[in-house]
Amino acid sequence: MRLLVLQQKVAPIFFNVPAARDQLAKEGEVYTLRRRRKTVGETMAREGDLFRFKELGRVSIEEVKEISSCDEGELGEYLGKSGFRSVESWCAARAAGASVLYRVVRKK
User: Fold this and answer.
1) What are phi and psi of 36, to 5 degrees?
2) What's the pLDDT tens digit per position in 62-103?
3) Which of 59, 70, 67, 72 is nearest to 29 (CA)?
4) Main-chain phi, psi angles of 74, to 5 degrees
5) Contact criterion met (CB below 8 Å) for 72 and 87
6) Which domains does the chain carry?
Protein backbone atom coordinates (compact mmCIF):
# COMPACT_ATOMS: atom_id res chain seq x y z
CA MET A 1 0.00 0.00 0.00
CA ARG A 2 1.29 3.47 -0.88
CA LEU A 3 0.65 6.55 1.17
CA LEU A 4 0.39 9.85 -0.57
CA VAL A 5 1.89 12.62 1.53
CA LEU A 6 0.91 16.14 0.59
CA GLN A 7 3.36 18.81 1.61
CA GLN A 8 1.79 21.95 2.90
CA LYS A 9 3.26 25.00 1.19
CA VAL A 10 4.27 27.85 3.46
CA ALA A 11 3.59 31.27 1.97
CA PRO A 12 6.49 33.74 1.86
CA ILE A 13 6.74 36.23 4.71
CA PHE A 14 7.23 39.89 3.84
CA PHE A 15 9.37 42.34 5.82
CA ASN A 16 8.57 45.90 4.75
CA VAL A 17 9.22 47.52 8.14
CA PRO A 18 12.93 48.47 8.10
CA ALA A 19 13.50 47.82 11.83
CA ALA A 20 12.32 44.21 11.61
CA ARG A 21 14.02 43.57 8.26
CA ASP A 22 17.33 44.95 9.55
CA GLN A 23 17.06 42.83 12.71
CA LEU A 24 16.65 39.68 10.61
CA ALA A 25 19.55 40.67 8.33
CA LYS A 26 21.95 41.53 11.17
CA GLU A 27 21.17 38.85 13.74
CA GLY A 28 19.38 36.19 11.74
CA GLU A 29 16.37 36.20 14.06
CA VAL A 30 13.39 38.49 14.58
CA TYR A 31 10.11 38.51 16.49
CA THR A 32 7.30 39.92 14.38
CA LEU A 33 3.60 40.67 14.89
CA ARG A 34 1.18 39.62 12.17
CA ARG A 35 -2.51 40.19 11.53
CA ARG A 36 -3.34 36.73 10.27
CA ARG A 37 -2.27 33.28 11.35
CA LYS A 38 0.52 31.98 9.11
CA THR A 39 1.39 28.43 8.24
CA VAL A 40 4.60 27.65 10.09
CA GLY A 41 7.69 26.02 8.63
CA GLU A 42 10.35 26.94 6.08
CA THR A 43 9.75 29.57 3.41
CA MET A 44 11.28 32.64 1.78
CA ALA A 45 11.53 36.06 3.41
CA ARG A 46 10.87 38.93 1.02
CA GLU A 47 10.75 42.71 0.85
CA GLY A 48 8.14 44.38 -1.37
CA ASP A 49 4.80 42.98 -2.50
CA LEU A 50 3.49 39.88 -4.26
CA PHE A 51 4.42 41.14 -7.71
CA ARG A 52 7.59 43.17 -7.11
CA PHE A 53 9.83 41.82 -4.41
CA LYS A 54 13.40 41.20 -3.37
CA GLU A 55 14.30 37.82 -1.87
CA LEU A 56 15.89 38.12 1.58
CA GLY A 57 16.66 34.41 2.01
CA ARG A 58 15.22 31.21 3.43
CA VAL A 59 13.69 31.38 6.90
CA SER A 60 11.87 29.22 9.39
CA ILE A 61 8.64 30.57 10.94
CA GLU A 62 7.27 29.46 14.29
CA GLU A 63 4.22 30.81 16.10
CA VAL A 64 4.99 32.06 19.62
CA LYS A 65 1.62 33.27 20.92
CA GLU A 66 -1.40 35.45 20.37
CA ILE A 67 -1.29 38.69 22.33
CA SER A 68 -4.32 40.30 23.94
CA SER A 69 -2.76 43.75 24.25
CA CYS A 70 0.27 45.41 22.73
CA ASP A 71 2.23 46.29 25.87
CA GLU A 72 5.36 45.60 27.91
CA GLY A 73 3.74 42.70 29.76
CA GLU A 74 2.97 40.84 26.53
CA LEU A 75 6.04 41.75 24.46
CA GLY A 76 8.80 42.87 26.84
CA GLU A 77 10.75 39.61 26.77
CA TYR A 78 10.78 39.63 22.93
CA LEU A 79 11.78 43.28 22.46
CA GLY A 80 15.53 42.57 22.16
CA LYS A 81 15.02 40.58 18.96
CA SER A 82 12.23 42.73 17.47
CA GLY A 83 14.43 45.39 15.90
CA PHE A 84 12.71 48.16 17.88
CA ARG A 85 14.00 50.22 20.79
CA SER A 86 10.77 50.17 22.78
CA VAL A 87 7.53 48.21 22.94
CA GLU A 88 5.72 51.47 22.20
CA SER A 89 7.58 51.98 18.89
CA TRP A 90 7.04 48.30 17.99
CA CYS A 91 3.30 48.59 18.64
CA ALA A 92 3.09 51.83 16.67
CA ALA A 93 4.75 50.22 13.63
CA ARG A 94 2.63 47.06 13.57
CA ALA A 95 -0.19 46.60 11.09
CA ALA A 96 -3.65 47.39 12.45
CA GLY A 97 -4.98 44.37 14.29
CA ALA A 98 -1.68 42.47 14.33
CA SER A 99 -1.89 40.23 17.37
CA VAL A 100 -0.05 37.00 16.51
CA LEU A 101 3.62 36.88 17.48
CA TYR A 102 6.05 34.84 15.38
CA ARG A 103 9.74 34.03 15.63
CA VAL A 104 11.48 34.05 12.26
CA VAL A 105 14.98 32.59 11.93
CA ARG A 106 17.21 32.83 8.85
CA LYS A 107 18.32 29.45 7.53
CA LYS A 108 21.96 28.92 6.64
Assistant:
1) -110, 155
2) 999 999 999 999 999 999 999 999 999 999 999 989 999 999
3) 59
4) -85, -35
5) yes
6) 13-106 (2.30.130)
